[in-house]
Amino acid sequence: MSPLHSVFHDIATAEDAAEAAAALWLARSDDRWTPADEAALQAWIATSPENAEAWADVGEVMGLFDRVEAPELDALRREALRAAEPAQKPRPALTRRLLVGGGIAAGVAAAGVFALGPQASWRAYRTEPGERRRFELADGSHLTLDSDAEVRVRFTGRRRDLVLSRGQARFDVAKDPARPFAVAVDEHLVVATGTAFNIERDAAQSMVTLLEGQVEIRARRTGQVAARLRPGQGYLLAGGDGRLISRADVTQAQAWTEGQIVFQDERLETAARRVSRYAPSRPIRVSPDARDLRVSGVFPAGDPDAFIEAVSLYLPVAARRLPDGSVELGLRGAAAP
User: Is the pTM of this model over 0.85?
Assistant: First the structure.
């Protein structure tokens, strides 16, 4: 049996297995660390969301956020210190003392096995295409999900961890300075203690819009602060990079909660992709020659025909229905493929 099989043998869940593996990676990261080791670590992180979250958890316990100078993150520092104290439970949690004080290194060297303590379970909240729902979370926060969205949630006595897996969500966060509320999206974390914000995620990019309070955008792996947002600001994430939007369209960010989609000088391809989220059985595709046309307007969510009719009227495009049920928008007069 391989060392990793030995490590994972008695671990009940994917999250626990990922945290055990993250701890092993940390134990190996010494002066002999090579570029090949780093490449292997990055490949492991990219394999699954659980792996990325586990590595971020290890980084937080190890104090990777200590350089951040912001009152909102004092609780994170206190959390790391508490995690370093001796565990009060029969089985240890993933702590700095356990990782650095010899527990993991000795366990790996002697037996090739490291057992993590019991972890709070992840709970998934999701909606079907065309559905919109509002949930009250265990801490009193409210989560509102747009069509075909999913958020995974795990709360403990020290942390409130969430992952936006797909779609769009609004987070109305209950104040709890001792437990930061951290939403993972792409390669970043959106961290707050009590505030309201919206995140829209699709295949190409994600947009964070702050509605009330304050949030920080941080890199998931290093904890480095990328931006601190004020109400009305946003942060655009694409391909691991980010850009501050000093004046975000708050009306657009909230319109979906009222069953509307608002576009303001949006690329036709992006607008079509957002409309299609509400009716995935009839997706709208845009031909390359029409992708960069701009769209503005307010459209009812869940009515792709209204969108197709409007853009065909006001833009130089024609709609062509394809055998698979989708609709292609292309420049009017262009030859069909």
Answer: no
